[in-house]
Design a protein that fits this description.
Layout (H helix, E strand, L loop, with lengths): L2 H21 L4 H9 L2 H27 L1 H6 L3 H23 L5 H21 L2
Helix pairs in contact: 1-3, 1-6, 5-6
């Protein structure tokens, strides 16, 4: 399959992740969970939460609307490693930190493994 189409597909998946993270504050247990955290940890958590939303949003834009430029960029390999790392870290934390139950874990695993595989494919495919 064409690298540009694959990147656009991963862009759509990244948009879904971005929207999911944007919805966190509307989840019923969000406020309660934040209240139970020590104030410094809460501030760190919220900072990372919004930083990952920004990163996901920028990544989604680049993957969806600038796929051709990405494929031809001198920074292609660095960006593919960066993007793949994000999804690989997410896969690891799904099972190490949360130990999410099936079928939720399977859905997240698929939605993270597909983009990671695409980024790795683009890295190794000449």
């Amino acid at each position: 399959m064409n690298k540009i189409i694959l990147l656009k597909i991963t862009g759509v998946i990244t948009i879904i992740f971005t929207l999911f993270h944007l919805a966190f504050p509307f989840m019923p247990e969000w406020e309660q969970s934040l209240k139970e955290m020590h104030s410094e940890m809460r501030n760190i958590f919220i900072t990372y939460h919004y930083a990952i939303i920004a990163f996901l949003g920028i990544s989604a834009y680049m993957l969806t609307f600038q796929a051709k430029k990405l494929v031809n960029s001198a920074l292609k390999n660095s960006l593919m490693i960066l993007f793949a790392s994000l999804y690989i870290i997410r896969i690891i934390t799904e099972f190490v930190c949360w130990k999410a139950p099936m079928p939720q874990a399977a859905i997240i695993l698929f939605m993270c493994a597909l983009p990671a595989a695409v980024f790795i494919y683009i890295l190794i495919k000449k």
